[in-house]
Amino acid sequence: MTVLRFENVSKQYPGGHQALSEVSFEVAEGEMLFVTGHSGAGKSTLLKLVHLSERPSRGAVVFGGRNLLKVRGGRIALHRRHVGAVYQDHRLLTDRTVAENVALPLILRGERRGEIGKRVREVLTRLGLGHRERALPTQLSAGEQQRVGIARAIVSEPQLLVADEPTGNLDPTLAAEIMSLFASMPERGTSVLVVSHDLALIKRMRKRVLILDHGRLMDDINPDDLAE
């Protein structure tokens, strides 16, 4: 089953900058893959189109069989309940504790309070943040803030997780642990799409890789071909 499909997608920003040009690919249910390329290649724009932070200029982005161009108004929030997102700037609410930030997706889904508390504690423990649940984001290091953002994105076990340089502020050991966590998510039914420029990490993970160059999809590499 296909979870996400790009059909000849192009994105041009005001002023004429062409971020993406005729990009087409599919993501299967329970698949993990990487998107890489030089700075400005269009990687972050691709994720924004999935999360409905941006709209394509041409082509179609199809998620769960629905063309996202048709998702408007209040349905945007409903769509985002199925897409967990990890950003480079974390986007944490500074007046909420770590636990409250992580709980937000579950609250929006109407989960029971007891279930919310249980799942928040579980995911914070998995990410080594169990002792920080009552802290405010401003009291955390950059690496801890990054992990809180990851916890918030995965706590609801979304249909798709998109992550923009999720290991950028983490040491190599923790980065490897986070990637291992992401790699286990397809077993729970979550497809994972990770933007990263860390070629060594990508090679170690042995997952499918999409390569963007100046907004164009230049290659779609299978795991068995990575050694080459």
Automatic annotation (TrEMBL):
<protein>
    <recommendedName>
        <fullName>Cell division ATP-binding protein FtsE</fullName>
    </recommendedName>
</protein>
<comment type="subunit">
    <text>Homodimer. Forms a membrane-associated complex with FtsX.</text>
</comment>
<keyword id="KW-0547">Nucleotide-binding</keyword>
<dbReference type="InterPro" id="IPR017871">
    <property type="entry name" value="ABC_transporter-like_CS"/>
</dbReference>
<dbReference type="InterPro" id="IPR027417">
    <property type="entry name" value="P-loop_NTPase"/>
</dbReference>
<dbReference type="GO" id="GO:0051301">
    <property type="term" value="P:cell division"/>
</dbReference>
<comment type="function">
    <text>Part of the ABC transporter FtsEX involved in cellular division. Important for assembly or stability of the septal ring.</text>
</comment>
<dbReference type="InterPro" id="IPR003593">
    <property type="entry name" value="AAA+_ATPase"/>
</dbReference>
<dbReference type="GO" id="GO:0005886">
    <property type="term" value="C:plasma membrane"/>
</dbReference>
<keyword id="KW-0132">Cell division</keyword>
<keyword id="KW-0131">Cell cycle</keyword>
<dbReference type="Pfam" id="PF00005">
    <property type="entry name" value="ABC_tran"/>
</dbReference>
<dbReference type="GO" id="GO:0022857">
    <property type="term" value="F:transmembrane transporter activity"/>
</dbReference>
<keyword id="KW-0472">Membrane</keyword>
<dbReference type="GO" id="GO:0005524">
    <property type="term" value="F:ATP binding"/>
</dbReference>
<dbReference type="InterPro" id="IPR005286">
    <property type="entry name" value="Cell_div_FtsE"/>
</dbReference>
<feature type="domain" description="ABC transporter">
    <location>
        <begin position="4"/>
        <end position="228"/>
    </location>
</feature>
<dbReference type="InterPro" id="IPR015854">
    <property type="entry name" value="ABC_transpr_LolD-like"/>
</dbReference>
<comment type="similarity">
    <text>Belongs to the ABC transporter superfamily.</text>
</comment>
<keyword id="KW-1003">Cell membrane</keyword>
<dbReference type="GO" id="GO:0016887">
    <property type="term" value="F:ATP hydrolysis activity"/>
</dbReference>
<dbReference type="InterPro" id="IPR003439">
    <property type="entry name" value="ABC_transporter-like_ATP-bd"/>
</dbReference>
<keyword id="KW-0067">ATP-binding</keyword>
